[in-house]
Design goal:
The protein is α+β, with helices and mostly antiparallel strands. It has helices at residues 15-26, 31-36, 56-62, 75-79, 101-110, 155-187, 193-221, 234-246, 271-288, 318-321, 339-350; strands spanning 41-45, 51-54, 115-122, 129-141, 144-153, 229-233, 255-258, 266-270, 294-302, 305-312, 354-360, 364-372.
Length: 375
């Protein structure tokens, strides 16, 4: 019975067929010597996108000793992609795989075209984010079709680019606004000074938040972020957020309310980190909202967990939903923002919780963070 797939074909070769292709390639004169000098992970895939041969650099890339256990896996399965085991069909067959550059490049090579794509992978269990460049080319030997797949880890390069495009861009914009109001302060009449000075203070605080946010993210990715839990009350946290973001520039002509039925529950968590996570959710919701619309915050108990949620009336397109939480993806455009990625990183690795969302045209978009009552 054929397995279902939402993208690439799910069928696989048998173990004997995999072994025969491995023996075929192993017998190619000088192939091992040539591939041994290639620094990048290099995979040979069969017509079912399964690994049938790999160079030594592949095992270094995977952090494992050379083993035949990799044979028969698809690239996402070998790499530990979080979506690779979601369906019986495996790597390439989920709805999420429709946006995967690696699968797209492999399919292109199977049609006879070389291709280069970028791929974002969240690693199962750890949820580490990896950015890859995947280059593919068709190859035939002894009448057997193969796809050669070269994989490079470009995470560091992508992170540097993200820093340049988001951090420096946003900080310079904020600093430019601060300078503008500082100049205005010098030219203001005495009765205008308090209002302009207030604006200068608000923009200065925003600038500090931008810098602190990036510093926290860099520390979190390096496993150097310290967590200082203390007793908190959920509704009080939400009220604090609402007050802070009503003054934020992204809230202009929009409303922020705390749901009246929100429960004021006891929770033990890191106050600053929790505010950063929820604040990111609120800011994203405000940016997605139009003038006159309302962003609603709430909290409730779910079994042994506490749930915070943020709702706005906008709907995210399906292709956006499939890429939320990936490090290099942003609803603001290429290289413009890492908010949802940082939310998941902070929540899963440091607050020991989980994060998800739902979005539809009828109900709008709701992001939820679930945390243990005690940590």
């Amino acid at each position: 019975m054929a397995m279902e797939s939402q993208f690439a074909p799910a069928g696989r070769a048998t173990e004997p067929e995999i072994h025969n292709l491995f023996e075929l390639l192993s017998g190619v004169p000088l192939l091992n010597d040539i591939l041994g000098s290639v620094p990048d992970a290099l995979l040979f895939l069969n017509e079912h996108r399964q690994i049938v041969f790999a160079n030594r650099a592949t095992f270094c890339f995977l952090g494992i000793e050379p083993t035949s256990e990799v044979l028969g896996n698809r690239p996402g399965e070998a790499l530990g992609c979080v979506h690779a085991t979601e369906t019986a069909g495996g790597c390439g067959t989920t709805e999420f795989c429709q946006t995967c550059g690696a699968v797209q490049a492999i399919l292109a090579a199977q049609k006879g075209n070389s291709d280069v794509q970028e791929c974002r992978i969240a690693i199962k269990d750890s949820f580490d984010a990896v950015d890859l460049k995947v280059s593919t080319a068709p190859f035939e030997y002894d009448g057997e079709p193969f796809t050669i797949c070269a994989i490079q880890d470009i995470s560091h390069e992508k992170r540097r680019r993200t820093l340049e495009r988001t951090f420096f861009h946003d900080v310079l914009n904020t600093a430019g606004g601060l300078q503008g109001y500082a100049d205005l302060l010098q030219e203001s009449e005495p009765e205008e000074v308090p209002e302009v000075a207030t604006k200068v203070s608000e923009i200065s605080q925003h600038l500090i938040e931008e810098i602190e946010s990036q510093r926290s993210l860099m520390a979190a990715e390096a496993d150097e972020l310290s967590v200082n839990p203390r007793e908190l009350r959920t509704k009080e946290v939400l009220e604090e957020l609402a007050v802070a973001y009503r003054r934020h520039e992204v809230a202009a002509d929009k409303n922020i309310v705390v749901a009246a039925d929100s429960e004021n529950l006891d929770i033990r968590s890191d106050h600053a980190l929790l505010l950063r996570v929820l604040g990111n959710m609120v800011k994203n919701a405000l940016e997605a909202s139009s003038a006159g619309e309302t962003v609603t915050l709430g909290s409730t108990r779910e079994a042994d967990e506490v749930e915070f949620w943020v709702h706005n009336s906008a709907h995210m397109p399906r292709d956006v939903q499939l890429q939320v939480f990936k490090r290099s993806f942003s609803t603001k455009g290429s290289g413009r923002g890492i908010g949802t990625y940082s939310i998941r990183l902070f929540v899963t690795r440091y607050l020991y919780g989980s994060v998800d969302f739902e979005s539809s045209e009828d109900l709008g978009t709701t992001f939820r963070v679930r945390l243990p009552s005690l940590m």
